[in-house]
């Protein structure tokens, strides 16, 4: 069955399985040295998560008619960066969490030093994957893909957002300051997932690329608003991670700033804006629209 003929649930299930198999193949096997590190890398990366970023990568790739094999690599690279960030975020020096994706966090299952090395190694592997395989129509474009992921992961992206988050504990933030933090901490990597997926295929018209970029920025914020709502309203078993930890750590969130009702209204506003950004792109943006609705439906 063609991807375009599947309903959304079947499409999502097939790509989640495809991503899992890709990661299994691309991660170092646990039988080669250093075995403990490789076991820990696989423990952190396999068997959990909704794979939202790989799904976004594949969905954006449909806009540019990208080859699925190319999208597998780009999606895996983004997911490895995401997993590395989770492993490091869970460490005692950061969020000090013991549960992730329904199982003990990496430093609990192994140890803190191994968890630190797992994050380092997953990050390195992500860039190795992007450099090793022909993913774009020319070398210059592929170098731009590497630059995009590096910026999304670094001090002007995810790592910088985490630094702002740590500094903001117990501090009152305005809505603009909260959005600035999450544009970096969460939004940058989600934007990279979308743009990398599109870059694996034919060049898009400038107007479509601009609309896609706008969509990617909006959906990155939307994901965080919904995540904040889930953290405040869901239980640990449902989330697969410790519920209520943001409030317990006195972290500023959309819920703590706006209240639950206005946070949900903010999510609805961002959902509409994401669909508006896709409207001019056409039918090939269908999966991105469905993913937008899925992100919101996780909570309400």
Largest sheet: 2 strands, antiparallel
Count all strands and give the number. 2
The CATH class name reads Mainly Alpha
CATH topology: Farnesyl Diphosphate Synthase
The CATH level-2 architecture is identified as Orthogonal Bundle
Distance between the termini: 31 Å
Q: What are the low-pLDDT stretches, counting only 5+ consecutive residues below 50?
A: none
Number of domains: 1
How many helical elements? 15
Q: Pairing-aware structural class of the strands and helices?
A: mainly alpha
What quaternary form is this? single chain
Return Rg in Å.
Answer: 18 Å
> What portion of the residues fall into strands of 2 or more residues?
under 5%
Helix content: over 70%
Mean model confidence by pLDDT: 92
Assigned CATH superfamily: Farnesyl Diphosphate Synthase
User: How are helices and strands ordered from N to C?
Assistant: HHHHEEHHHHHHHHHHH
Verbal overview:
This protein is an all-alpha fold and 300 residues long. It has a single domain (3-297), classed as Farnesyl Diphosphate Synthase (Orthogonal Bundle). The protein is built from 15 helices and 2 strands. The chain has helices spanning 8-26, 35-45, 52-61, 68-89, 106-109, 112-132, 139-153, 158-167, 175-199, 206-233, 236-239, 245-248, 254-258, 260-279, 286-297; strands at 99-100, 103-104. Strands 1-2 form a two-stranded antiparallel ribbon. The mean pLDDT is 92.
